[in-house]
Amino acid sequence: MKLLAFIPIRLTLLLIVGILIGHYFSFNLLHTLLFTVFLFLILAAIFFFEKNTKSILFGAIAALTFTSLGTYSYTAAQPINNTNHFSKHQSSNNELWTLKIKEVLKPNQFSTRYFATVKSIGNEQVSGTILLTIPKDSASLNLAIDDKFITYTKAKAISHALIPHQFDYKKYLENLGVYHSIRIEHNQLVKIKNSQTTLLGIAARARNHIIEKLDKENFGADELGVIKALLLGQRSDISEETYTNYQKAGAVHILAVSGLHIGILLLVIQFLLSPLKNFSNGRTLILVLSVLFLWGFAFIAGLSASIIRATTMFTFVAYALYLNRPSNTFNILALSILFILLFINPNLLFQVGFQMSYAAVFAILWIFPLLKELWFPKNKVVRYFWQLLCVSIAAQLGVLPISLFYFHQFPGLFFISNLIIVPALGLILGMGILVIALSLLNWLPTQLVWFYNEIISLMNSIIAWVAKQENFIFSAISFDFIQLLLSVFVLIMGVELFTKLNYKRIVFFLLSILCFQGYTIFKEYEAHNKLEVLVMHQTRKSLIFNKSGNDLTILTNPDNTPDYLFSDYITAERINSIRYDSLKNSYAFKDGSVLIIDSTGIYPKSSSHKILLTQSPKINLDRLIDSIQPKEIIADGSNYKSYIERWETTCIKNKIPFHYTGEKGAYYFK
User: Is the pLDDT of residue 447 over 90?
Assistant: First the structure.
């Protein structure tokens, strides 16, 4: 690949390898620092004495040095490795916590959620970020960024996913440096006045002020929700139906302020400022104003992590345009990742938004020039839409493996929504910024409000039409991590073959396809022959899954139906048919039996290999153990927590294994 000829690309890849090593293996922070410094000294010595940067020894030590630097940066970036982290504070009871709101998260149906910085516990100054949850039925108080308060509470570790193949929220939060959570009522916190204001707090207040202004204008509810998402990164007001339509149409990226918006905005700014080129130092002035406008937009959009990284990237692109070296975009892109983003926050590498954003950009810069050369229409309008289609295809090819791995779906008509919406996005963004400016000045005419509302309404209607073409939406696609890697290998080999056709590249491309097909066939065969029985966890429900090949039988109470959360399990396990059956009192297995005791508390006085407790039966567990002599006791999510605690204590006393699905996840019968 020609990309590897760029030194910044090589260094970025080495840094990524080091970050991955630090992520999957634990290292002592001091040891990694000393080892990295040692390698830098060796590298400097080789350069000083040999003065030959092209030698094999220098290259090998340089590669090892940047790999070690990646490992150190990842280890140092983990808050829990800080000796002052609040998790190092020993406490068994509720204590007085001082917290400061760091980020307001999207609320769910039941609660409002925040990331809060822990300032102190008792009299001890500590650091770290915690997930704060406040129930909605009591949340008459809405907290904002920089709000500081005290409360008596105790933190608890965030649990892993309790359902197989479910989204692991614990792992997601760990990649953000959050390991614990607290849940409090609004009347359990006391706000502290005169809290120190940060830049993020100022940005949040500015955005909230703009939102208040827009709320007073005569926009439709759906249109206003989309406007807030497009211009301010505020997606909480979008209706579920509208958001689902954008997902199905393959245009959900339009609703998140990201590289697409910043890139288009940069082009609009450069076009509007182009007359300044006629003046002395005009190009320098264009660069300065472009960067200021970009960061001004990032400021009013809330300075979220995705906006900051997108603005950082296109700040480098603006500088590349100033140098008149657009062909060097790959170097600029790699430098923005290496020195500004990954080195400062290596956890970005494990965030889906970061992965998809840079995958799309790399694919556009790499694949788009190849597709563009396939056809060169003489008509400028046709040429513009052809190139736009090429950009859309290149971006989709870049993000397709990642999208299939995380979301298990592919919108077949993505190119239609992109061909229609993306060309107009510059106008939509430019007009939206004008609407915000005039609204802040109280000069916004009702005619402009009506016109802009109609444009957004038309965009929503187009997206809704595309989303209704159900036959072109491919969902529930089983796609694991190995398939992700193999599909990337197929993509790389395919592009290399497209670049230059020769025997060697044909062989590698066909070999990559065979590897992908072979592994996929193996997984289908494995799923077809897999037999497993497991007790699923779900609050107030009893569920047993009996998987026999591609068929699934769900054993549950008559009034219970499985939750949508089990769709991930059904997709990953390649389930083709589902049927329901009622729970029986007992089941026999090859190596034993399980007795199910429900709310009636009735059970036979015969021995049983295992016992499943459901629906909070009122039983004397000591007496049951004496009469049945079970080897293990299982409790699902349908039981009261007070009962669970009592049963667990009894099992510990009697030295019998106890499995609660609410703590240990699904229980597998061997």
Answer: yes
